[in-house]
Specification:
alpha+beta, elongated, 17 helices, 43% helix, 5-stranded mixed beta sheet, single chain
Length: 564
């Protein structure tokens, strides 16, 4: 049985001679009760959906503006309609009431004076009572169905499939970013919002939050229709979206009984999934940590642990690190990148999972560690690396659309053909992350294989040992105590990068050609460097790269003035 509406009043025998004076746009208003207007302050005593009966006796003294104000109060309280008995106290319905009725879509229905109120009240109450019985039966049916699905551990796909059968419209479940989780009609998954409006919850006889959208479906020949979006909150304030596509029939209040039960079942199912995922993630995180840090008691125990969570360790993996940093110009104190459930990392996790659905992701502090599964790496290593870099760039772009105040840095190790090689790939990814940021800026995507001689220098972890390879000539320049020292070091570095081409050096540094030649001569005077000696030039280039690793700090590189 459908819900009882204003237009259904005319099916009652005693109202067949009644007629609508104004406000015909509101004939689909649902009726949830009926009462008689005994005083002008009736609006204070109604809760919405009431059919109001009156002879207008309490309003006889009202002028036009007061009549309109009275109607506005009824509309604000969402009264369904106003039935006016004429012929006793008023012969004509006042113009103020009619004008307001049209404007507010609140129907005004006229009945003759000989129609007793009880002959309206009794049939309406009987219809409402029957309707409530139907709703209770329907609620029990829907409730039992979805509880059975929940207890049987059927999952979200079965839940939305059952909902589709009950309400007669397709259903799609989306995550918080409106990426499809499951759908009963794949043609409706993609949509473009044309218009959004808040739905009238009271008219739908539900307290459940929802809103309605007018959308276009590109995969369904561009057709346009309405759909309802019901946000379903799970744990940690994470929301998913249950969407009802109004493609087959109009969504009615009765449908929301099934929708609410389905939403409850979905919420319970997701809480259960979250709890299981948390345990699995902790188990997997511990296993990843042991593998990356070579804490392996036996290969047999490692494979047994991996089998418990269905993780195939026989694949080839590349360790890729994603690190978040606060962008320049933003207050780092106001951005918590280390929180247990910080939103930035959760969002980044989802973006990575979209690009690498087969990857294994581990959250740690301000980083996400990804064990990136690769295939055919031996056939074309460069193509494999290009694929990872391209995916990392896509992840960066998606992330920056949401968070402009953060930088996302990426470091890529080389392929690990067995689990015993994972610590090496992890160390390489760390080195690539650090050096890539130092050399290429705060949004660098760097691979260890691109680091050149840095790959060799990274093997020496002792800064003191590395400092021994800085040639004496370069140490003299580092010890130079004049304000232009930094300019001289930068000029030397750029000059050697451009194969001692002064013109290209000047172009990159945005200085005059003569400035470069003057600086090079000054460097020669300070250091005694012989730029014609290829061995000495090589040692200076290596020394400059060592400075990138350990920093231009006399304490760090143990400058010995006695030897300079």
């Amino acid at each position: 049985m459908m819900e009882f509406k204003v237009k259904d009043l005319f099916l009652i025998d005693t109202l067949k001679q009644a007629f609508v004076i104004s406000g015909k746009q509101g004939l689909n208003n649902p009726i949830r009760g009926v009462t008689i207007i005994e005083a002008p302050d009736i609006a204070e005593w109604i809760s919405g959906g009431e059919l109001l009966l009156t002879s207008l006796y309490p309003l006889q003294s009202y002028n036009v503006s007061e009549q309109k104000a009275f109607m506005a109060q009824l509309s604000e309280k969402q009264a369904s309609a106003l039935i006016i008995k004429t012929g006793r106290f008023v012969h004509d319905i006042p113009s103020g009431i009619i004008e307001a009725s049209e404007m507010l879509h609140l129907p005004v229905i006229q009945i003759p004076k000989q129609v007793p109120y009880r002959e309206i009240i009794y049939p309406v109450m009987e219809a409402l009572f029957n309707n409530q019985v139907v709703k209770l039966k329907y609620f029990k049916e829907a409730h039992d169905k979805f509880i059975a699905l929940t207890l049987a551990n059927k999952g979200s796909e079965h839940i939305i499939a059952s909902l589709t059968k009950l309400i007669g419209n397709p259903v799609t479940l989306y995550d918080r970013n409106f990426h499809s989780i499951s759908s009963t009609d794949p043609h409706l998954v993609q949509f473009e919002v044309l218009e959004q409006e808040e739905a009238d919850a009271a008219r739908m006889d539900t307290e459940f939050p929802f809103y309605r959208q007018r959308v276009n479906y590109p995969d369904w020949d561009g057709r346009i229709c309405n759909h309802f979006v019901i946000p379903v909150e799970t744990v940690n304030h994470i929301k998913i979206h249950l969407v009802i596509h109004e493609t087959c029939k109009t969504v009615e209040a009765l449908d929301f009984i099934a929708i609410e039960n389905a939403a409850t079942s979905l919420s319970l199912d997701l809480v259960k999934q979250y709890a299981v995922a948390e345990v699995e993630m902790k188990f997997k995180d511990d296993l990843i940590d042991d593998l990356l840090h070579a804490k392996i008691e036996s290969l047999q125990s490692v494979y047994q642990r991996a089998n418990l969570i269905g993780w195939d360790l026989n694949k080839i993996y590349v360790v890729v690190l994603f690190r978040l940093r606060t962008a320049d110009g933003y207050d780092a104190m106001k951005t918590d990148l280390y929180g247990l459930h910080n939103p930035y990392q959760r969002m980044l996790y989802e973006f990575i999972h979209q690009q690498v659905p087969e990857g294994t992701i581990r959250s740690r502090s301000d980083q996400l560690i990804v064990l990136w599964n690769v295939e055919n790496v031996e056939e074309d290593k460069s193509a494999c690396l290009r694929t990872i870099k391209k995916a990392a760039e896509s992840i960066q772009k998606m992330f920056y659309k949401s968070f402009e105040h953060l930088n996302l840095q990426v470091g890529i190790g080389s392929a690990a053909h067995s689990i015993t090689e994972l610590p090496r790939s992890y160390k390489e990814a760390q080195d690539a992350l650090q050096l890539g940021t130092m050399m290429n800026g705060s949004s660098a995507i760097a691979a260890f294989s691109d680091l050149g001689i840095y790959r060799l220098l990274c093997q020496i972890e002792d800064a003191g040992e590395l400092a021994k390879f800085i040639p004496p000539s370069l140490k003299k320049l580092l010890a130079y105590k004049q304000p232009n020292r930094e300019d001289l070091i930068k000029t030397l570095q750029t000059f050697l990068q451009h194969h001692q081409n002064a013109a290209k050096t000047a172009e990159e540094l945005y200085v005059h050609y003569k400035t470069v030649t003057y600086r090079i001569e000054r460097i020669k005077e300070i250091t005694g460097i012989d730029l014609e000696d290829p061995d000495e030039v090589l040692s200076v280039q290596v020394g400059l790269k060592i400075l990138v690793l350990i920093g231009d700090n006399p304490v760090t590189w143990h400058l010995d003035h006695a030897n300079v």
